[in-house]
Amino acid sequence: MRKFKTESKKLLDLMINSIYTNREIFLRELISNASDAIDKLYLKSLTDASAQIDQANLAITVTPNKDARTLTISDNGIGMTAEELEKNLGTIAHSGSEEFKAANADKQGDAVDIIGRFGVGFYSAFMVAKEVSVVTRALGSEECNRWTSDGIEGYTIEAVPADDPAYRQTAGSDVILTLKDNADEASYDEYLEEYTLKDLIRRYSNYVRYPVQMMVTKSRQKEKPEDAGDDYKPEWEDYQELETINSMTPIWKKRGSDVTPEEYNEFYKSTFHDWEDPARTFSLHAEGTLEYDALLFIPGKAPFDLYSRDYEKGLELYSSNVLIMEKCADLLPDYYNFVRGVVDSADVTLNISRETLQQTRQLQAMERRIEKKVTSELESMRDSDRDDYVKFFENFGRGLKYGIYQSYGMKKDELGGLLLFWSAREQKYVTLQEYAEAMPEGQKAVYYAAGDDRDRLAKMPVVKAVLAKGYDVLLCTEDVDEFCFQAMRDFEAKGLPKTYEDDAAREAAQKAQADGAEPETEDRTLELKNVSSGDLDLATEEEKKSAEEAAKANEDLFSAMKEALGEDVVTKVTVSARLTADDDAPSCVSAEGPVSLEMEKVLSAGPAPEDIKSQRVLEVNAAHPVFAKLQAAQQAGDKEKLALYTSLLYDQALLTEGLPVADPVAFAQNVCKLMA
């Protein structure tokens, strides 16, 4: 027995037990080696006239034998001499494919893409086999040789006589695995099952450029005997047929004109196990120092577990048509976790097992390009297919908002333009840019209301007050909305009509437009303001003055109301400048400081409730008849009645905001007292 070169026992043990994490990978590795052998033959035929090949019959065959407990992977590639067996299989980590690539670098071109790199893939066979034999015959040689090893100490190389049944009549190799005995922790019989083998071939080697064939069992109806009577019942029989298991040509490498939308849809549904057609299909082909092809899909419907902890994002990563990772998370940012697809690159630097990647900068470059492509496609859908985009956003918009929030607003420029919100005035979804373009002259902020119900938000006094001023309000009903806007802080609207500092500048611009000049535009930064915040500054000077005078005249009343509610309940009680005689609301609750009412509600409802409180302000409508009742109770010195009215005003304002009252029982009792 010949000893393995290098520190064989330690290194081989490392190859078998440490490098690969999934033993089923062995079949991928052996099929890849077989594909390389055929590629070498094809490449040699391009430069050597004596190397005649029948290109139509180039194939890889997988043959299980349950009786002998062997699995054979055969190819009709270039084969190996005894010397090459010694060099390629007797020296661990020596890659014959890598050596061949280096020697033929100027000839290889795009037609051939040798997969092998490290010279260790072959030894993955020992994860499932107790003995491996390689019977091979080199191109142009009559000699056939057998390499045999148990994967422990060494190997043997012997000639195969022409009268031996194992003797190959043509060039190529047979890799014969004698499977390990079953154990409690592992069953190796599954690698002899037709279903398992077909599944592994299609999963890992579906796009190897040559047919991967296997004899499969099929069923057919027997011919009806001529003498069969009317009571004849059809009979069926099993038979064996050589079937090509893999599809060979990757759909992502075909020209778009050669693939129908139906074919793309079928590929998507079969590959990613979805029942619905994708909402969008698009491809990406990168050239240069890092070349890759990508076929990407936006699903038509969100998976049920999209926002669960168990959901795994990622694209299928291929290298030279061989599946490397089923979900490569590094190719997608979290906010595009819904995107599905495949990326194929021969340039990515793999680790020795080809299960993971080595260079993160390659992934980062691919991720940036893919991110830009996805963004571009979403923008196109938003602008040209609004109905489809609305459906998309209802499925996946939450993730885009989380992307802004989780990046602390750093991604607002990339994602802000993709967001949709319900317009209270337009009664439809609009973008922030569309909201800005519809603003009246002089509006300096984007106004929104956050809550859990669109209809309730539309009826809120603070919303109706802003709408009455002629400004639109965005009605936001997802728990992430408030956090998203807080992270964004503002939005830069593009190409808005230019505002002028004085009448002279405005008149000059109008005259220029009358003479044929284009209207002047400008980019404008708009603050994002919750209508429940205390600093909207929408009141007129007259309204502000009136509110200030009323607040000053009723200082004692408001002091008593604050005392009745409690120092820790509200920061202050004051006259509202936003609620007027036209409003039917007697009061509202607003918030001062960084924590809004909606943020407080969301945080308190979480799995780990946080004791974060907003600085609440009770605003009283001085023009409402209820205010006169409060004044009368104060003047009469009826502290009990004032406390009752105050508590009811505050609780009803909370309910209007969609916030819970602190003591529902007390609220109900107070209502009864008022009715009595």
How is this structure best described in words?
There is one protein chain. The protein has a nine-stranded mixed beta sheet with strand order 1-6-5-4-7-3-2-8-9, with helices on one face. It has a six-stranded mixed beta sheet with strand order 16-15-18-17-20-19. Strands 10-11-14-12-13 form a five-stranded mixed beta sheet, with helices on both faces. 36% of the residues lie in helices and 21% in strands. It has four domains: 2-217, Heat Shock Protein 90 (2-Layer Sandwich), CATH 3.30.565.10; 251-387, Ribosomal Protein S5, domain 2, CATH 3.30.230.80; 420-530, Rossmann fold, CATH 3.40.50; 541-675, Four Helix Bundle (Hemerythrin (Met), subunit A), CATH 1.20.120. It has 676 residues and is α+β, with helices and mostly antiparallel strands. It starts with a strand and ends with a helix. The protein is built from 21 helices and 23 strands.
Shape: elongated
Helix content: 25-40%
Query: Using DSSP, what is the number of strands?
Result: 23
Q: N- to C-terminal separation? A: 106 Å
What is the arithmetic mean of pLDDT?
A: 86
The count of domains is: 4
Give me the CATH fold name of the largest domain.
Answer: Heat Shock Protein 90
Gross CATH architecture of the largest domain: 2-Layer Sandwich
How large is the radius of gyration?
Answer: 37 Å
Q: Which CATH class of the largest domain is shown?
A: Alpha Beta
Oligomer: single chain
Largest sheet report: 9 strands, mixed
**Beta fraction of the residues?**
15-25%
Please tally the helical runs, counting DSSP H or I stretches of 4 or more residues.
21
CATH superfamily heading of the largest domain? Histidine kinase-like ATPase, C-terminal domain
Low-confidence stretches: 93-98, 108-118, 352-356
Strands across the major sheet, in which order? 1-6-5-4-7-3-2-8-9
